[in-house]
Write a structure and sequence with these properties.
2 copies of one chain form a homodimer. By secondary structure, chain A is α/β, with parallel strands linked by helices. Chain A has 3 domains: about 1-10 and about 25-70, lambda repressor-like DNA-binding domains (434 Repressor (Amino-terminal Domain)); about 85-185 and about 325-350, Rossmann fold, CATH 3.40.50; about 190-320 and about 350-365, Response regulator (Rossmann fold, 3-Layer(aba) Sandwich), CATH 3.40.50.2300. Chain A contains 11 helices and 12 strands. The first copy, chain A, has helices at about 30-35, 40-45, 55-65, 75-80, 105-120, 155-165, 190-205, 220-235, 250-265, 275-290, 325-340, and strands at about 85-90, 120-130, 145-150, 175, 185-190, 210-215, 240-245, 270-275, 300, 320, 345-350, 350-355. In chain A, the strands form 3 sheets. Chain A has a 6-stranded parallel β-sheet with strand order 2-1-3-4-5-11, with helices on both faces. Chains A and B meet through α4, β1, α5, β2 and α11 of A and α4, β1, α5, β2 and α11 of B. β2 of chain A pairs antiparallel with β2 of chain B, so a sheet runs across the interface. The structure holds a DNA duplex.
DNA sequence: CTGAAAGCGCTTACAG
DNA sequence: CTGAAAGCGCTTACAG
């Protein structure tokens, strides 16, 4: 065993009747003694410094394995100033049950953590909601090298807080879902997605297509999706029609109320493009309650490709962003920012997720 | 500004033409200079040590705020040996798309992070799947004080790895979903939940109730739920019937296949208790395809209370664990373990989540 | 109640 | 290619 330490009273096992002493910890000095080299050589060898000879490296590695030695990251980080950690902040609605949280963001969170891990970084995750508990001083505390912020755009105070943080110099921050345009962000290719959804409905023979959306929501992506829909409609020689959502309800409830209002208005419609799946699922319920068969009488396409859509009846056709790409792009963008590269706004590719809430296309358009 | 630092070449702003120097960082020495006290007093004041006078504490706090000073946690952790961080490991199936991950675990993850935050701890989250990339040496690296492991019980290699880790001394580990009984765990009150589900079906007038489950699955909870169902059936003078799931399919597919097999067997049944919601959602699809109306012809109750169940048609009645309690119990158990308290197995309370896949009870049983 | 000093366990110039 | 030494920025006995 290694005995050669700065002030070791009893290097082996626990100090017997000792008074609440700190538990003994294997350090690079112990490994050095075991391998018969200096502590600095241990550090270099384990860090893979090419300057150490292969023979030495192997001897050190063996000693480290034998003693189950692992670098104390706090010491390493203190010394180098780098943490190898990214903070991921998930913004929730205040008071919302964590179980009712939008599954889209959970999937995005998973994809971010996986991407960070692939890039050799840890992820420090926090769910934040209440204004008095907002916290983003991860870099100042040297807990992380940068921050990724995702989550509901409805929590204005939280976004204001992180917006300010992102402005202050030295802070690296990238986000998804921000109501602000001046931060570094990654978003779905909303224009392409909305056009894809609308085109799909058109090809299936629907013509009176309305869009459940908002032009004023802090969720910027809704406006972008509406615009994509509107453009595609005009291209087809049709008039876009917006059914606006009402503030202050859950997405699902907003979808339900939008359909109720639409039916009450008496205006004819045979298809709906809802700018997110949670709206679409609410819309689907309202259509079912009104006895309007989907997809026979009314076609329905959502956006986000959440898993719950697959369990709806009929399963919801949707536009799905490439989740894996989304996580990777957020992480790589943040890493670039940390490395000093200039800000950039990125789009995640989307694709049509055909399920069963829309009829089969009458004739596939030639490419 | 504070000028009084060990080796400050240019304390203000960035060193002009300096060669890749470390960016200047505000330290407790700067705050000390600003407040006119010693560095040790700054440390004590900011840590809330009651020994410092209120006047001094206020002066220090003001100086710290003015300089936007935050304690470098790496230095603090190196010194104290505590990290204030819990590692949360989420075990996935290898190769599984992160989007298809069981939403139950996402909700549990959210609840754990929230609970840790309430207890003043950070959460270091990782999603792990591939055997060669398993990693749990968070304590050895001093990145965390303990580990919470959750996720699919299907990834045997991952659980073996963390099982070994939990055995090795000094490691603090608590889990949910472990196929092992000898680790510290927290689970749903599966017996009570299964009895509740079965009783609910009985009260609604169903009598030929089968259970989609497994007695041999590594997912121990499935066996516990089956046993609870069986006990309740026997109490009602009925014979329990198990429809076993087949290995190697997704939960949803297992549910679908179980119902298909049940129908093919020709045995009469009028209700199903599925031991998890994903099984139940698959079962629901198979019932629909077979033209068996739910809840009129067949009653169906699941377990876990996942959000997707609410979007099914009909919405799925289920047994819901108290998610908030689950996160809190996992965190508190781990904190107790870290504090040296002995191991313990805990049960999370469950309740009936009435939706619409089961008829209304004919007569409420007297309490 | 406050300060001077030691030391947590690394990484990395600086010598050789 | 390897070693001796400095120092990252704190907390906490030890004095006063």
């Amino acid at each position: 065993m290694a005995e050669n330490r700065k002030a070791p009273s009893m290097p082996t096992a626990n100090p017997s009747g000792a008074n609440q002493r700190r538990p003994y910890r294997v350090t690079s000095f112990d490994v050095a003694a075991e391998a018969g080299v200096s502590q600095s050589t241990v550090s270099r060898a384990l860090a893979g410094d090419p300057v150490v000879s292969e023979a030495t490296r192997a001897r050190v590695a063996e000693a480290a394995a034998k003693l189950n030695y692992h670098v104390d990251e706090n010491a390493a980080r203190l010394r180098t100033g780098k943490t190898g950690t990214l903070a991921v902040v998930v913004i929730c609605r205040p008071g919302e049950n964590i179980k009712d949280f939008n599954p889209f963001y959970y999937a995005l969170l998973g994809s971010i953590c996986a991407a960070a891990s692939r890039r050799g970084h840890e992820t420090l995750v926090s769910f934040q909601d209440l204004p008095e508990r907002l916290w983003g001083r991860y870099q100042e505390q040297r807990k992380a090298d940068g921050i990724i912020v995702i989550g509901t755009s409805e929590n204005r105070e939280a976004w204001d807080y992180f917006h300010d943080l992102g402005q202050s110099d030295g802070n690296h921050l990238v986000c998804w879902g921000s109501p602000f345009d001046d931060l570094d962000w990654v978003r779905s290719d909303n224009d392409a997605g909305a056009r894809l959804a609308t085109g799909h409905l058109l090809e299936a023979g629907y013509a009176q297509i309305v869009c459940i959306a908002s032009e004023t929501s802090p969720q910027r992506q809704f406006k972008e999706r509406y615009d994509g829909y509107a453009t595609r409609m005009v291209e087809a020689g049709l008039t876009p029609r917006l059914v606006a959502i009402e503030k202050g309800y859950s997405r699902e409830e907003q979808g339900r109320r939008a359909v109720a209002a639409l039916i009450a208005s008496g205006e004819a419609f045979d298809a709906i493009f809802a700018v997110c799946d949670e709206l679409a699922l609410g819309a689907l319920q309202a259509l079912r309650e009104a006895g309007m068969a989907v997809p026979e009488k009314v076609g329905l396409v959502g956006f986000d490709g959440i898993r719950a859509g697959a369990h709806a009846s009929p399963p919801l056709t949707s536009i799905e962003p490439d989740f894996q790409a989304a996580g990777t792009m957020l992480v790589d963008r943040l890493l670039a920012l940390i490395a000093g590269k200039p800000a950039e706004k990125l789009r995640v590719p989307v694709s049509l997720l055909e399920r069963a809430s829309c009829r089969q296309p009458k004739a596939k358009a030639a490419p």
